[in-house]
Design a protein that fits this description.
Four copies of one chain form a homotetramer.
Chain A: E1 14-15, E2 17-29, H1 30-40, E3 48-55, E4 58-65, H2 68-72, E5 81-90, E6 105-109, E7 112-122, H3 125-134, H4 145-154, H5 160-168, E8 173-181, E9 184-189, E10 198-202, E11 205-209, H6 213-216, E12 222-225, E13 230-235, E14 238-243, E15 256-257, H7 258-264, E16 270-271, E17 274-275, H8 276-290, E18 297-300, H9 306-316, E19 319-320, E20 324-326, H10 342-346, E21 350-352, H11 354-357, E22 361-366, H12 373-384, E23 389-394, E24 407-408, H13 416-419, H14 422-429, E25 433-436, H15 439-444, E26 452-453, H16 455-458
Parallel strand pairs in A: 15-26, 18-19, 18-22, 22-23, 23-25
Antiparallel strand pairs in A: 1-24, 2-5, 2-11, 3-4, 3-5, 6-7, 7-8, 8-9, 9-13, 10-11, 10-12, 13-14, 16-17, 20-21
Helix pairs in contact in A: 4-5, 8-9
Chain lengths: 474, 474, 474, 474
């Protein structure tokens, strides 16, 4: 296990990306199919969306900022027959949301035209980038995604497939790559299996996606995980599987991101072999077992705490109540209130159901606690609505360490759990009590807990991580 | 009670409108405040949004098609000081979504400049319109909303206030009017109290809105219903209340739309003196009491069946499960799939949680059944996910009659409950059983059940209704 | 002749509107044809555009703010078969550019559904509006256009045609109306013939438009003016002509707006029987005859002075030079420079051709002088480019009086010709000399000069005008 | 001199790009200044626009498709202080208008962060690209522009400045580069001086642009051409000039694109030391001298033939007439007519002034003849308007050869002058006669004619050109 050192990261927890690939035996309106798949992955990235597909021997691509429906909709006015393509949704993780960073990217190089969509974060990208830059490569974006393409172009192996395999051997960290080369779709998942990637098949069509929820639409006859370290080469509906060579340091190990189960994935997805919803219910049940709250009513913070709250209620026998509702019209186009009205803005998302809450001792269930600012507002709302007591229970341990594998977590200093013990947190946010699920209990919620990365809670990283990021400009 | 005769109406159940008015003692950025209020009423109308406010002795207005955030956002770039204004969100109920029909409308007439926002449906509008048209009035929209303004302009009473009162005496049906005249805001609710309208007050500011959820943002010190038949005249923060004269036919009677409690209103609102969420829970409990299902798992259709399912689970002791999830990114901008992919489209909104459902006998709770097409898809999804049995329970009686007071209900022929008995419906949608809440049980869920209009279930209308709509063009 | 009294008007000279109507024997894609016609009338109104056409017994309409290409383009994605329709382009003449004021407007009244497009300005609209408002009519826009529709609806004549004729007898001033009623298109021009209106015919199709340039596209077999006081009733390609009854006060008189020839109309149009371009050349020649400039080079202000400058050059023998160019990309979407850079903004439209100007004595020809602010900038540009002398010649007399017939002219105080004599103007704008075409010479440029309204120069109005506008709100 | 061989190119003559750079001693709102400059270069590229500027040690960039006003306008809502930046307008020359090809591009490489804007076309780019690709570079666009950046990144010279100089030595063809590195702006023009590039200075600010018209806005105290082969290094307002080493093959030679004078540049610009307008007048005069037309009226095709027609008229004594007008609202947003109405579309741009033309023998002056399709329409318009004879005169020689230096010229087969002699062309387009300016006469219009590239007329290329373009994908 490896330990981290401080560095600077900003923003709240946000997830990087979602990917989708489709390969069919015959021409279909591929952009439309990708559109539906990406739409189901919208929760994994709302900053930009893009697609790339094979047509008449070339790769056609389109990317834009915004949600799937607005970014890609005008592309769907016509039929675009194709047999194979990939798509991507993305969070911007470095401040501005530059179109330059949208994916899939398409390049021409000595291995031909290649398009790439990526979900993850490479842990040795700075080192590799430094070396490529020293060797004269130029980078047009601030993402990891260009990196693999540069490596492939630099590879002495003349064939694309060989070069891809070689280069995958050079990179470390969390990745799910969908790569389009000619009419072949490659799908690759890192050996530790950080991020989810699944594959499904239905008469004459193969679909690959970050989560099963994107495959369900297509009513697949079979679905399975792409194995950690597996490389799929898909032509038409024919799938050839091979494996990345294991590395000594990590041979046979897994490091599934446990935060996918806690927060990122959609509850109706099956991730790492678990129903996300059922795992979350189990987390709620664990809280009830280990750290029962004096509350006589349990309410979820919608939607992130819904599954866990149901599990808590079932396990504890405490009455479940929908005491908070959420305005789902609150999207990316929403206008930020002027400073004078900022507090109004906060109240537009979550709303207490006064008559259900008044006079009750409330146990509120949420998935995690980052800075504590939203929780403070929520506790205030509940008290104004008449709650007699407010006890906050989190279905995850205290968040205290940065993630180097694709999750944007604020700096160590900003994480409230690094500043305060649960009682101090309760005081700061105005709650009567605050309790976290223990790491041990969390591990108890999954099969083979050693197959998970829990570094954001424990600081124990599954592979070496850098001290500080290197800027690509010298 | 009055009985209906057949006429032609199209489309599924849709609700008309939401209104919001604000009056303050001093200048505030009124468009911004209205924006937040309307945003909280977005569920009441997503086709167009508009605001009108008083500034420098004139009424300034802005309306556009689309959701609140897009239709009004660019209006918020600057400060627009004003003391009083009104806003509106709207469903288009007649096919095309014409901007001409957006509200508030603003007119100049012999009573001065007037702006009007309306939620409801007048039952004698055809008769009045016919008379006005015969007398030489011209109509620029296809809405009821112009009607009151024409009547006011035609009134022999020289003063606006007197004319308003007189004209309100001429109209029948369901209405909540917000009227802006000079710097005075009038709020009127019909004597039968079909639609909800509430008023709140906070230091120096008065807010009127269709639902309490729009007032909550402003943290009002007090909230009450605008009484049926009440007319509020608001200047600054001073409120003067008076009453419409009672009519013999309806004196002392009420006809609150029970569908507001079943489906329209937001669960965190308090409508007709009830917490919407708690009434819905009661409906669910009533189903459990009167018509228990053999299911061993109860799941809501999100979000419309969530409260009732919780009530059912509590009352029956049957385990509650979130067995269906919903993609909330599905908004108005969503692209309709091409015909070839229509079935995909249906599957993009609701998703089964397979592992929670497989092998179980499911009781699904929804609020109402209109044509049955969506329910058929949902039952199919649940069966594909492995449900052993699927029992559908509705928290409302069979929908069988048209609404003349603002709810768009399909024609009698299209309503599945007019064609089939529950068992026939079950066969048609593929469920193992289908049961409706009885009208008696529904009435038992509210205080003073006689104060409610249940005509869409019973065919007994609280006031005379027309046989057929009259086209305004001759 | 009638004399005016002061009132308040704002803004520079702007023209109101352009209209286009088409009637065909068989279905054509009418919106597309109207689009092309309106596009050719774009110079007559750039604030909003709209169309209305007959389809399946109803009038379908669409209006939006913006230029023709953007306001109407998305309407053209599909075919909309129809036999008859009208269109409109509009300048907003009262500050804000409200969509409510866009045309054609469509109303339902006791004469049926009617759509109206209007170019002109009624001189007794305040009186009529006052009377209609007193009688209970409501106005939803601030334009004259609603007026005729109210009158028609109020007319005791039961038939539309009769009512139209009666009501036309009530109104005075400048108007060209296109009226759509059922499948009949009416085209009416006021008895004094203020604004141009022409009609053309081509196999099975009749086209009416403000200017011949909009007809040319359709390669008409014949074109003629709609006569002053003529009413055309068009069904399919059949045209029935009748005449408004003459009024004693204006019997047999004409009052063509001479500013159409000076500035508004497109040079390739034929207006009031004249080629606009050739009349403007004649104006230039008159300047050369009456008030020759000492300049040894004559340059037009593009594009408004181009024709007159050519006429001046030909008549005087002075060399013509394109000494100023214009950036035609400068459209409505153009961003106003920040105050700090305002002067840059001015320089983005007109550009001197330095080498053609340097050291020369320049005679600059423009069409008219309003406030003088732009001319001052232009003179400065020419001097910076090295002009030795700058002599400004205007192809119209001093503008000193307001127009009540559709032209927005600034207030009397703002008109530079009301403050200063030519020499004073020259000093104020920095020119070596400024001379205007005399009214007598201007009249000499047209056939039958008494048939023209020259009130903006002479203050002699062809019909009575009001002292002050009446606000429609009391 | 070098000769060409056939290859495939599509589309009519279009020009590539315009560039603008600004460097100031102190912070200014640089995006706004670039916006104005680019707006004046809009005629050089209407497909996309972009800017890049230095701020807080980083390069900030923004690019979008569309005209300057729409692509960059929303960027101007706020102040963005900066001291140095570059901008670009672009034509797409290869079918689709991909945002990926918009400029300036920004990359990170071993020489730091670099932004580049380019106007021109490299003649050895295929060879260099092939070599870079072989060496492992990846290309993300289909433009030449990435090429220089790849070369710089690959250069063994460690310093940016040295690498830039070395790499400029490797490339051949037509180029004007603006390069932003740190807070330094480099401006480079190729040794043959194909494309124009000028520099101006004004208190504390240096401006570089493709044409003088973009500098005029800023009222520069001095303007000069960037010399062919000159490299300017600009920091604040300090300019350091150096020179590219001459190559034996082209030492001391110049190859200014004569088409800039004939058609591309704005008439008010001064290009290659000439007033564009005056050179065009001279071309017109030469036609009059060498090949006088029997026409008794000379009219320009607006706006491209305006200057030459004036020169022709002055030299010949034949009367000038504005016999054709142009609809300047015809912009990029214009909708293409449906096929059934295509001919209407053609008539929407050019309009004859009938009364000025009827019965006359017309000499029409245009700048050049490509495929002849538009000319055929124009001749028809003139005949329909009554022209007795139509004689077309072109102010350039027959276009017969492709350009390898940045001008998109249709294939050899499509160029009408490759198929027909002037008399044959006259027959094909319906004119009474067609004559071209001879190459000798054209050369006589400029000082030092040997300093010009006239390859599109003569086939004699100023430097070696490739036989066929190489696709970058293998």
């Amino acid at each position: 296990m490896f330990h981290w050192r401080v560095e600077d990261r900003t923003d709240a927890i946000r997830h990087h990306c979602g990917v989708m690939g489709i390969s069919a035996e015959e021409d279909v309106n591929l952009p439309e199919l990708l559109f539906y798949g990406l739409f189901s992955l919208q929760h994994r990235g709302q900053e930009s969306a893009g697609i790339a597909y094979h047509r008449h021997g070339r790769i056609v691509s389109y990317r834009d900022v915004g949600m799937v429906a607005s970014a890609l909709s005008h592309y769907l006015k016509e039929n675009h027959p194709s047999r194979v393509g990939i798509g991507h949704v993305r969070y911007s993780t470095h401040g501005t949301n530059k179109l330059e960073n949208a994916q899939p990217i398409v390049v021409s190089c000595n291995k031909g035209e290649i398009s790439l969509a990526h979900n993850g974060n490479l842990s040795n990208s700075d080192e590799l980038t430094r070396s490529l830059i020293a060797g004269g490569s130029i980078f047009q974006s601030t993402t990891d995604t260009e990196l693999l393409l540069h490596l492939i172009a630099r590879s002495p192996r003349p064939d694309f497939r060989g070069a891809l395999l070689d280069c995958l051997g050079l990179i470390e960290g969390a990745y799910c790559f969908l790569v389009l080369h000619g009419d072949t779709l490659f799908a690759v998942r890192d050996p530790l299996g950080f991020r989810p990637l699944v594959i499904g098949r239905r008469d004459g069509m193969v679909m690959v996606a970050s989560e099963t929820c994107a495959l369900g639409l297509f009513q697949p006859e079979e679905i399975r995980e792409v194995e950690p370290g597996e490389i799929l080469e898909i032509q038409g509906s024919r799938i050839t599987s091979s494996r990345l060579p294991d590395r000594p340091a990590t041979a046979g190990r897994r490091a599934h991101c446990i935060f996918e189960l806690i927060y990122f994935a959609r509850p109706d997805s099956e991730v790492f072999g678990h129903s996300v919803h059922l795992v979350r219910k189990r987390m709620g049940a664990m809280i009830a077992r280990d750290d029962p709250s004096p509350g006589d009513l349990v309410i979820p913070v919608p939607d992130s705490g819904s599954s866990a709250a149901l599990g808590y209620a079932n396990a504890s026998g405490v009455e479940l109540e929908h005491g908070l509702t959420r305005n789902h019209y609150m999207g990316r186009t929403f206008i930020q209130p002027t400073p004078a009205l900022r507090e109004l803005g906060v109240r537009m998302k979550l709303h207490p159901v006064r008559q259900a809450i008044a006079g009750r001792r409330i146990t509120v269930i949420d998935d995690s606690l980052v800075r504590g600012t939203t929780s403070r507002q929520m506790v205030r709302l509940l008290r104004e609505a008449g709650a007699r007591e407010v006890h906050l229970r989190l279905s995850s341990p205290p968040l205290r360490f940065p993630c180097f594998f694709g999750i944007d977590i604020p700096t160590r200093e900003e994480l409230i759990a690094n500043r305060l013990e649960p009682d101090g947190i309760a005081r700061e946010i105005g709650a009567d009590s605050v309790r976290f699920l223990s790491l041990e209990a969390l591990r108890g919620c999954v099969d083979r807990p050693d197959d998970y990365c829990t570094a954001c809670f424990s600081g124990e990283y599954p592979c070496p991580v850098m001290d500080a990021p290197v800027h690509r400009t010298n």
